[in-house]
Amino acid sequence: MPAPVSISPAPLATPSRLAAWAGAAIIALAVLLAWGNSFRGPFVLDDALAITENASIRQWRTAFDPPNDGQTVTGRPLVNLSFALNHALAGKEPPAKDATSREGNDQVFGYHVLNLAIHLGAALVLFGLVRRVLAGPVLGEKFGAAGDWLALAVALLWAVHPLQTGAVTYIAQRAESLCALFYLLTLWCLARGAVSARPGWWLVPGVAACLGGMASKEVMASAPLMALLFDRAFFAGSFREALRRRWVFYVSLAATWGLLAGLAWHAGNRGGSAGFGLSDAAGVPVTPWTYLLRQCDAIVHYLRLSVWPDRLVSDYGFDVIGDPAKVRPQGLLLLALLGATLWALWRRPAWGFLGAWFFAILAPSSSFIPVITETAAEHRMYLPLAAVVTVAVIGAYALARRLGPAGLATAVCAGLGAASLLGAATHRRNTDYASSLALWRDAVAKRPQNARAHEELAQALAKEPGRAEEALAEYREALRLEPNFPNAYNNYATVLADLGRHAEAADAYAKAVQLKPQLAEAWLGVGNALANLGRLADAVPYFKKAAELKPSVLAASHNLGKALDGLGRTAEAVEVLQNLLREHPDYLEARFTFANLLVSHGRLDEGITHYRMILQLKPDDQLTAVNLGVTLFLAGRKDEAIAQLEAVLRAAPGNTDARDKLAAIRAGTP
């Protein structure tokens, strides 16, 4: 084993400020060109859970306490806070998933802008980091002035690569890019501090960056160890010297694991989406071994996409691999790469660091710890891609130098061509995110055996007017591929219910309940279908179970109240609706139901009070306004009733219901 070498903290080369500014400008321009068509893309995939249905981002006091149900922001408070910032800047509720209105797109625009700003920030930090390394005490003499342009090549190719769209254009995966930004900042601060006369000015922010990464995503777990490897490979020369010079820094970095451990403990198994002893969406158990075999195939696929990103897919399904023979070539390749990394860490630390970077960052999600909702995902390559690109750029440079000036000129042209092609591919890939329908059509075309892709395409089709039958066909295909797919049964039933086919819907919902008893939405669906079939008594226990399983499904308590009232169990209905409104006073649909119930049972003054409360929050609610006018008349307040209905007609002259009611009241009839 080579003897440890102590290296002077002074760099051998000073990076050019002009090159830095020129490189930063080129990167920024390239990023804007590649992603310029991504700003209007709607919310897709998990954006609904992370943003549009995430109540915690509506107020600053809850922004640091994201939902603990396994969605993208679970256990990642800084990501949740960033969505809260977007929400506050928008100044209104975010549009629904896949919103297509101009107003909705304007709001989504802000989320895309922040995503791209984070990505650009990460690219610029990567540029600065590689520059510092290539100008540092270990590599400065070898690369000299070429270091600036090599750093630019690395950052530029990484920044415009289409494999990055999964973490940039896909808004919810901000967790990946935000964590990467903090990861890179941690190492950049270390690189600055290692050669600074006042290292604390850089190392303290480095610890803060590491802390931010721990609050963003679990892949940050490797950062303290990678920082030590980085220091040993490029600045200190040995582990002993790195610890001697900066032991306080490394102790502080290790302390940030405490935050990650606390967040992981609070998140548990991330709502049943990650950990051991779990089953996938089709109920198939996922073991560490079958998941590890799946990762052998996935990681080699990521490497291929890094070189030739021709078939990018938004969703790879939740399949695993049980037979090692199916991934023997991939497994042998990865073992060879891992072996080469271990050898290089011993004999060639700089190359070894790049290999360790690739494997260490992928390890939390792409090893043996099952993530059952995504057994493969392109966004996981966001930061590991930097190692692949760096190896390619430095390797190409080494080859070009051997060929002389002609070789260097050829390498420059090849680099510019690669950047142009990758940027164009990214621009093209962004068009797939223009709508959920486009994204899932693309996924189904590339992965026709992916049941979840068919199920998601069906959901997108169901939102399109007049395409319900196409949606049902896609649901049937998903269920053919995965017969035990509870979410597909649930959503299939929803389309049937929307078409008025309530008996079929009840059967499909019941199948979802059977396969996944904790799926509250399916219990609610059975209740709704039975209620629409006139079987209110049968519907009641389903509504109760849905409310018990998931209190946040407010429709369960609301519909329970309506069913109880329909059965003549008025006192129970009043109690249910009162409790619901006590917890959720702004749930206007339930308040309207409650007001109608009170009026129908002669409690007119109470009904009037609730109608007025609705109109305070929603002044343009014409139905409530008309009901208020009629109730005022029934309460003997004829003049107020006439004034109320006249006000409705001034706002909406075409409201025939209000006009008929007003005429009846003036004639003295109820």
Q: What features would you describe in this structure?
A:
- There is one protein chain.
- The protein has 670 residues and is mainly α.
- It has 2 domains: 17-430, no CATH class; 588-670, Alpha Horseshoe (Serine Threonine Protein Phosphatase 5, Tetratricopeptide repeat).
- It is built from 32 helices and 2 strands.
- It has helices spanning 17-35, 47-52, 60-63, 77-90, 102-134, 140-143, 146-160, 165-168, 174-194, 200-214, 223-236, 239-255, 257-267, 288-307, 328-347, 349-362, 384-403, 405-432, 436-446, 451-462, 468-481, 486-498, 502-515, 520-532, 536-549, 554-566, 570-583, 588-600, 604-617, 622-634, 638-651, 656-666; strands at residues 278-279, 285-286.
- The protein has a two-stranded antiparallel ribbon with strand order 1-2.
The spatial strand order of the largest sheet comes to: 1-2
Our estimate of the beta-strand percent is under 5%
Compute the number of structural domains: 2
Task: Measure the end-to-end span.
Answer: 98 Å
Q: Main beta sheet: strand number and arrangement?
A: 2 strands, antiparallel
Total of helices = 32
Helical content stands at 55-70%
Count the beta strands. Answer: 2
The shape is elongated
Unreliable runs: 1-13, 98-104
Keywords:
single chain; 670 residues; mainly alpha; 2 strands; elongated; disordered N terminus
Any chance you could write out the topology, listing elements then pairs?
Elements: H1 17-35, H2 47-52, H3 60-63, H4 77-90, H5 102-134, H6 140-143, H7 146-160, H8 165-168, H9 174-194, H10 200-214, H11 223-236, H12 239-255, H13 257-267, E1 278-279, E2 285-286, H14 288-307, H15 328-347, H16 349-362, H17 384-403, H18 405-432, H19 436-446, H20 451-462, H21 468-481, H22 486-498, H23 502-515, H24 520-532, H25 536-549, H26 554-566, H27 570-583, H28 588-600, H29 604-617, H30 622-634, H31 638-651, H32 656-666
Antiparallel strand pairs: 1-2
